[in-house]
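Hi R.,

Here's the chain you asked about this morning:
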Amino acid sequence: MKSFSFHTNHRQRVKPETKIKLIPLTGTQSRSEILKKIEISSQFNMRYRGLFEYYGDDLIAYKKENPTDFFRNEFLRTFSSYLTDYLEDNMPASWNKCKKAFIELLLHIHLPNTIKISKERNSIQHFISEFKKFSIWLDQRKGTAWTKLIMPYNETIHELTLCEELLNKLYLQMYPQFFETNWDYEKDLTRIGKVLEESKDIEDNFFEIIKIEESTVLLANIFTNKQFQISDIPVDDRFLGIILHGSICRLEGHTTWSLLLVAGLYPKGSKRYLTFMEK
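And here is the predicted structure, written out as tokens:
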């Protein structure tokens, strides 16, 4: 199965500092045990920093209960990336400290960046299924209330599945032969590059889908509210309010714009986080 995923970190970055930590050897944690943890956690790409945090042992324990399950491994890969890469030093101090903001950033910002381009279009479905299983497991193991924590987000989860559906449609519109064994990606890139050169105007930003009229879609820049008429993209009323991250262009002599590149799609509730991060 071919797949393609987008990864965009929207937070402003400063020059990183290099931090070195030593794993202390205690009477209850031998060198061989630490090496075993590293070996297991590397199977779902958890960064070493996770070994110093409370969540590291739990993710490893969850993995060990079903070590060869593909969907569990994919869930752990995505979730551990959120904990170690995205949250970094802002990770809550315990599972019980993971409240509304923790879940919302996961669903509204991090998870959309992991959506895959695939024939099955089910990466969100599988992640949410595994996330619910993990929540039940964690509640039983740690006495948390994660199952209740994620219950209010059914609408956001539905919007995520719509984001995955539309992202696949838009990507295949740009690269129709993506799933073909003889796909000539260089030819497609050359075609897009030619359109880029011929474009009079180009806008690269986050746009909300606000209106649909026959074959024209109205997008609004979420930061400036400037509106753009986009022609010939496979969007219907179900996708109103979805946030599109990408590039649009207008050719010389044209009144409407065209979608040039798409980098990601986000649920409606993502707008407040994206606009906040821009400030």
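One quick note: The longest helix spans residues 154-174.

Cheers,
M.
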